[in-house]
Amino acid sequence: MRVQGEAVGRAFFAREIHEVARDLLGREVWVGARGARIVEVEVYEGANDAASHARSGVPTARTWPMFAEPGRVYVYRIYGMHRCLNLRAPSRVGPGAILVRAAEPLCGFESRVREKRRLSGPALLCKEMGIDERFSGAWVGQGIVVRKGAPVAEEEVGRRVRVGLNPERCGEAARWPWRYIVEGSPWLSRP
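and the corresponding structure tokens:
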């Protein structure tokens, strides 16, 4: 098994959400024997973010991990069938979480995962890594582990608008450059 570095602790997630998002690039996410290097994330934060599940300001049975302590996992289902992995980090404007959008497979995957880019999108990543709602609310390190991995140099980090947001529903939030990527990675969900 290829493991690079020790697991990050809760203190890693207890920093400002955009700082954590940028620093997640190059980290490794592990579920059991499957490991992948994070290459793309998106920030969702506070009541002023019309795309955030925390926009109401009130936690629900599904969204409470976004309002919990930093370092919690938030997994939700979209379109009734796909799952998305989020990691809780604090924001200056309220609750928030970071969506892990894409990763490069490192260990524990069948060859088809690499050949068909099966970690290039949040739903694909969750499916191939076996991530579902049973992880939601757990601490990072309890089933889903984030390891230090290899740092990404500042010149390799890009910022883009978030993916798949409806401008009519989300307004200006659909244009915020809150997607952090490893520039040039073939594993991105979108360039």
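(Above: one complete record from the training split.) Residues 17-24 form the longest helix (8 residues).
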